[in-house]
Amino acid sequence: MEADGTVATVAAETAQPQYAPTPGVPSSTLLQLWAMLNQRHRWSSLVVVPSHPGGSGLQAVQAILEVANRQSSIPLHFLDAEGLELGASQHVVSEMRAYVEQGDRVVVLIDSVVANPLGLEIALAAEKALLSVTLGSSDYTSARRTLDLIGKERFLGSVTLQPPSGALKK
């Protein structure tokens, strides 16, 4: 989400992508995603949240990790908080803060906060957020509710993903 209220979007590669056409060189799509995430705001903690119940931001996280490992000198850690159970969110928040306190960056993957509100504590503890939108599955109402719950001002933008291979078309 840009400061003017618009959502910056970068389309990510699809399932089984060819991220690096040349060995060791990220694709232009991944470089655009990384630039979008780092262009206007410095962040130490980023939560990736699907825009709809049943969605996943895993493809987006994998893309972020791949390009960060080649483009950033600051270590970037990944915490998988999908399927979070009652009482577990505080542990994830503590782990996220520990990485930030040591000067590192951390990306946390959570479930849709519309479907599993336990991730909301993590999203609100993170400095920034990235909305993961799956083509053909995401709906406007869930995406809007996600933005409202977390706060539009926290979002750096969104990433549009193709549905996983073999996904049923609606």
UniProtKB/TrEMBL annotation:
This is Uncharacterized protein. It comes from Cystobacter ferrugineus.
